[in-house]
Amino acid sequence: MPLFANWQTQHYVWGGITAGALFLFFVLIPIVKYWRKKHRNTELDCVGDGYQFEAYIAQLLRRNGFINVDVTKASSDYGVDVTAEKDDITYAIQCKFYNQPVGVKAVQEVLAGKLYYDCHVAVVATNSTFTRNAVELAKKTKVLLWDEDKLARL
Description:
Blueprint: H1 7-39, H2 50-63, E1 67-71, E2 82-86, E3 89-96, H3 104-116, E4 121-126, H4 132-141, E5 144-146, H5 148-153
Parallel strand pairs: 3-4, 4-5
Antiparallel strand pairs: 1-2, 2-3
Helix pairs in contact: 3-4
């Protein structure tokens, strides 16, 4: 027995379901994401420069159970701004406080710094996003990328 009495009714129902799904996917979800991003009250909103961002990352790591969290000296840091440890795993973190996407150079720098500081994991943290090339290199080299959304979830 068919679900609907005639095929025309069935087409209207499935058309309405399809239109609703498209509306949800292309209109409602992006609006909600934009609103959440615009109205979330995070400590990151109070950060004004790269040095404050490094201190913010260090504080965030401590709150999330990392130990031996150290901010490296400002010059000659070998591509690492913060080092930390959690569960016997050491992390080398490059911090980028940018108003544009972070490029591949940051991934290259933190890889070198990871070796210099003898760490297990390399991370690039930013208040922004990453370029396609940075994401591609990070996947190949197993560098973790923490963008503004990831930081907000930590």
